[in-house]
Amino acid sequence: MQDRKTDNPGDKRIRGKGRRPAVKPEKKEHPFEKFRKEKPAPSRQHTSDEKGRKTFKSRAGDNKMSNKTYSKVPEEIRLNRYIANSGICSRREADDYIRAGHVTVNDKLVREVGTKVTYSDVVRFKGRKLNPEQKIYLLLNKPKDYITTVDDPYAKRTVMELVKSSCRERIYPVGRLDRHTTGLLLFTNDGELTKKLTHPSHKVIKIYQVGLDRPLTRTDMESIAGGIELEDGPVQVDEISWTDESDKSQVGIQLHSGKNRIIRRIFKHMGYRVLKLDRVFFAGLTKKNLPRGKWRHLHEKEVNRLKMNIFK
After folding, report:
1. Is the alpha carbon torsion for 254, 203, 290, 194 positive or negative?
2. Given 178, 213, 232, 247, the catalytic residue
3. Predicted local confidence at residue 241, as pLDDT
4. Is residue 268 classed as helix, strand or coil in its secondary structure?
5. How far is CA 166 from the centre of its chain?
6. CATH assignment of 77-129?
7. Is 121 designated active site?
8. How far apart are CA 118 and CA 127, in angstroms?
């Protein structure tokens, strides 16, 4: 195999086949460095208000995090919110669809942005009846020794136990992490978004930190970057790099493949054993301010980016 060279001999990153060589600017932070800088976030305490309703608040009393109370569903809501709750699109996009005449309420065409509806109304988008169930989007920093399953009578501990107090709606994990893998795992009851994030055609980016049983050689790193053939077909990574120059058994790898146990199988194919595997980036989401074993709800902007296929 010919040695793949870069314009900058000091650049330790190896990019996937077909990409331009990476140039490392002077004193630039390592590409995986930001994912190692996890800051503890104020934990959410589960309490109850004077009416016995479940609320969440920050231990540190952070005024920026408002208490969330699960209360009675409002009688009227804006039409764009109703559409967004159905998982079709964001509220802003819903306004555009309303103006364009793609939405009917009780079989009547509605073009006025700001129209309010009730949950008893029949709302259709391009002739399709919408389900107004409140959509939940939740991110968990999964700890080790938890199984990614919704219902397994033989599993001692499942990820559902970690998020059972998060909401009243029934939510499901998007994809899976095996028992010994830690890191980001998204939960939602939005079926359309789940299909989008798990379908190979959308090329959702994932970044993992990998701890190997021995240092990864540059030759093997180049082989992985160039693409390897596994028993179920070829695998192409986007980028691979040592995350610690003093310990080359620590590797960062970026890819968009959704194949089962793909990281472990890549390194097993090259003769390495994975001792530690942590997903630090998924579809534009990171572990920042999310301690291990904790969860948080996504912000509206994060949800909109996922729906608009902005995964970087």
Report:
1. negative
2. 178
3. 96
4. helix
5. 17
6. 3.10.290.10
7. no
8. 19
